[in-house]
Amino acid sequence: MATSQGPTPASAADTADPADQLARLGGSWVWLLGAAMATLVPGILALVWPDVTLHVLAVLIGLYLLAAGAFRFVAVFGQGSGGERVAGLIVAVLYVLGGVLCLRNPLQTIAALSLIVGAVWLVTGIFTLYTAIATKNMPHRGVVMAIAALGIVAGIVVLALPTESARALTRLLGLWLVLMGLAETAAALAWRSTLRRAGVTGNDTAGTPRHDTSGPVV
């Protein structure tokens, strides 16, 4: 006579699957809020510290890009379709590469630093906009598209406007970082509202809505 033996090793392994754990974390509104803070805080620092040297600015931007890349990499696992994940992964890798380039040679020129940041924002905005348009039933699509448009404009502005001093570049990057950080904060709070409407409460708040497993791509 068969008796209940409890969960099998396979089911226990599924429960402890790192990909599932990353998916739950990446779909959390708290994680998205953390990503927003990783953008907002460097922007505030740049605005309140306009006389920062080019060396310190390069390190600050490099750390921002690395942190943002790490947040976006985990968020990839909380996204639904394969196309969304591929686009999110490309964006995460782009941020990390940009951060490495900034930190690898922090004594680089103003033009080089502008090129790195502007290119990252521009390409990221294009990928995010494409994902928002291509993904059906994306929660708060308008917010995501607004963030994408903001990133595209920021990239174009940084690439197009010549800056002759570290002070001018610091103010420019700080302004755009604050604007994008505020937009990403709005997206995180909107995602929290979506989770609550979907009935995700208690320990499930770190997960995703039961009716839709794709979080906002920011």
Number of structurally distinct domains: 1
Strand content: under 5%
CATH class: Mainly Alpha
Q: How far apart, in Å, are the first and last alpha carbons? A: 54 Å
The tally of helices reads 8
Structural class: mainly alpha
Radius of gyration: 19 Å
Task: Give start-end ranges of low-pLDDT stretches.
Answer: 1-14, 201-215
The helix fraction, in percent, is over 70%
CATH architecture field:
Alpha Horseshoe
- Main sheet, how many strands, which sense, barrel? none
Strand segment tally:
0
According to CATH, the fold-level topology is Serine Threonine Protein Phosphatase 5, Tetratricopeptide repeat
Average pLDDT score = 78
Order of helices and strands: HHHHHHHH
Overall geometry comes to elongated
Description:
The structure is a single chain. With 218 residues, the chain is mainly alpha-helical. It has a single domain (23-196), classed as Serine Threonine Protein Phosphatase 5, Tetratricopeptide repeat, CATH 1.25.40. The protein is 73% helix and 0% strand. It contains 8 helices and no strands. It has helices at 9-15, 18-26, 29-48, 54-76, 82-104, 110-134, 141-160, 166-197. Mean pLDDT is 78; it is low at 1-14 and 201-215.
